[in-house]
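Page 37, continued from 36.
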């Protein structure tokens, strides 16, 4: 069931159900101080009057389909999602992971529809802010514009690294780079405990991210576990040899 929540009043509507009053979702966000939504709030720390709408969707459901008109600037609030491209032959390439606080894509603020789709990996709560309102606020706020430029530059750096991984890394290096990337992002969120962190990707999704086959992915994950580098499974990663993982990931090369 898709549930929609007004980001200002906290009034939730469930299709086929009765509206209930909830705490405004923005007030309980753990990541707003460091993401685009936090920059929108500005010095007041209060949710901006932009008419944002929060929605909740179950795992493995599509949040957005490529080519459809977008309802606004999309931000992930809770849960994990992926951006991906579905090819005519049925194969899929995952472009990036979306964690709480992430925009679907910083350049998407300037576009009304996208060439990629978005799917929930876990149960997800996300928000749409109207394009016109966000663009007007960016034009009036140089600090917000600068923040968006930094997000766009970071997204470009990540895309460059991903291209190098896909084109020049071995299978073990590709998967190690993915695990190291997620580990770093979880560390920034305080979600790594005793070298263990969330990793809700299936072997098929890891294969779709790295450009490998599921069989090859399974072999690499087994080798990483047997060699005492890391253990991936049951929605988590347990790091057993951080230095070896980082060496495989070639994280210090550039």
């Amino acid at each position: 069931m898709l549930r929609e929540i007004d980001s200002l009043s906290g009034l939730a509507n469930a299709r086929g159900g009765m509206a209930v009053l909830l705490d405004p979702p923005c007030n309980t966000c753990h990541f707003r101080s460091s993401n685009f939504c936090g920059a929108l709030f500005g010095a007041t720390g209060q949710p901006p009057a932009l008419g944002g709408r929060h929605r909740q969707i179950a795992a493995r459901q599509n949040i957005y389909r490529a080519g459809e008109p977008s309802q606004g600037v999309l931000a992930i609030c809770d849960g994990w999602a992926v951006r991906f491209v579905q090819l005519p032959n049925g194969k899929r390439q995952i472009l990036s992971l979306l964690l709480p606080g992430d925009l679907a894509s910083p350049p998407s603020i300037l576009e009304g529809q996208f060439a990629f789709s978005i799917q929930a990996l876990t149960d997800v709560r996300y928000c749409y802010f109207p394009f016109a309102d966000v663009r007007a606020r960016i034009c009036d706020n140089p600090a917000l514009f600068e923040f968006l430029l930094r997000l766009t530059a970071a997204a470009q750096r990540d895309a460059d690294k991903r291209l190098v991984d896909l084109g020049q890394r071995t299978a073990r290096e590709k998967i190690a780079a993915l695990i190291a990337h997620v580990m770093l992002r979880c560390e920034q969120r305080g979600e790594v405990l005793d070298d263990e962190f969330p990793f809700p990707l299936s072997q098929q999704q890891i294969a779709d991210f790295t450009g490998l086959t599921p069989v090859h992915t399974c072999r690499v994950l087994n080798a990483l576990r047997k060699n005492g580098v890391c253990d991936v499974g049951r929605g988590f990663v347990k790091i057993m040899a951080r230095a070896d993982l980082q060496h495989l990931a070639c994280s210090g090369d550039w």
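DSSP finds seven helices and 13 strands in the chain. Flag for discussion at group meeting. The chain has two domains: 3-154, 171-249.
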